[in-house]
Amino acid sequence: MDAGELTEGEIDEILSLYRQATTEQTTTFDIIDRAGDERTHTKFLRWMCDPEGSHGLDSTFLNHCLDVAAETQSAIEEVDGSAINSVSAFSRKPDETELDILIEMDTRMIALEIKTQSSLRHGQIDAQTRYLQKQVEKDAIHSWDYILLTQKHQNTKGSYPHLYWSDIHSVLASLVGQVESDIDALRLRDWMRAIDKDLLDQRDFGPDSRLALQYGAKLDQLGFRMIQMRILMTAFSCSNDCVNGYENSMSCLPGRPVSGHHERFSRGLRRARIFTVLASIGGKMQGFASKYWGVINGSNKGQIITPSTATGQRTL
After folding, report:
1. Any idea where the domains of the chain sit in the sequence?
2. Which of 113, 228, 274, 284 is most buried, judging by how many CB atoms fall within 10 Å of its CB?
3. Which of 134, 167, 136 is nearest to 150 (CA)?
C-alpha cells in the first residue's frame, strides 16, 4: 500500500471522528444550564453513594470508588450498606466549612471533597479534616476517611486518597447495566455523557483536532478521494437496496407485473435517491473541508491543533 493511502480502519476512524466533530451532544445538564456545576454533580454522586437509592446497587458504587481511591494511598476499608446511617450533601456540621458529601456510620465517617472547575484550597481541606479528627477525639467515631474528587489536571493537595472524574465515569460504565430501573439507567447514562463532555480533562484533543493532526497530511495528499469513493459506494448500495425492495414488492402484487413503465420508474427512483444522498453528503463534506482545509494546508495555524485551542468536544 502506498504510504499516502488510507487503510480501511483509518477511513472508518476518520468518518467516526467527523461524526463526533459535527454532532452536538446535548445533556440534561446543558438544558438546565448546569454543565460543570459542582453542586448538581455532587447531588448525583450523593444519590449513587446512598445504598437506599432507587438505583438498586446498594453500596456497590461506593465500594468501587473506595477501592479506586485506595490505589493512590493506603487501603480503604469497604462498607456494608446496612451499616450506613446517612448520606448527606453539603453538610454544615463543621462550624468553619461545608462537607460536600458526608457518609455517616456508627463508628466511622467518610467525607468527599468535590471539585469540577474550581481549585482545591489548603484552608478548606484543613478545616474539613480538623472537624473529622475532632469527632474521633470526642469518641463520636473511631475512624474517618477523606477523599478528594477532581479533574486530572487539578493539583493534588496533601496526602489524601484521590479520585478523578474519569474514575467515576469508568465505575458508572461498569455498573449502569445492573441498575434495576430503566429510568434510573437513562439518568445515569445522561450523567455519564455530561461527565464525559464537561468534566474529563478538556486539554485532551477533540475529534476535530485529531482529524487535523493524525490525518491532515494524508487527506491533503488524497484530496478526500478514497473517503468520497467509500461514501459513494455506500450511497449507491443503499439506493439499490431501496429500489430492489420496491421492485420485489410490486412484483408480488396480484396482476401487477414489473412492466416497462415500472422499470423506467425504478431507474428514475434509483437516480433520484442517489442524487439526493450524494447532495446531502456532498454538502457535509464540503463544509468539513472548508472548516479544516486551512489547518491541513497550514493556514490559521494554532486555531485547532494546539491543546489550548482544542474544542474538547467528546461523545460517549
Report:
1. 8-22+204-309, 34-199
2. 113
3. 167
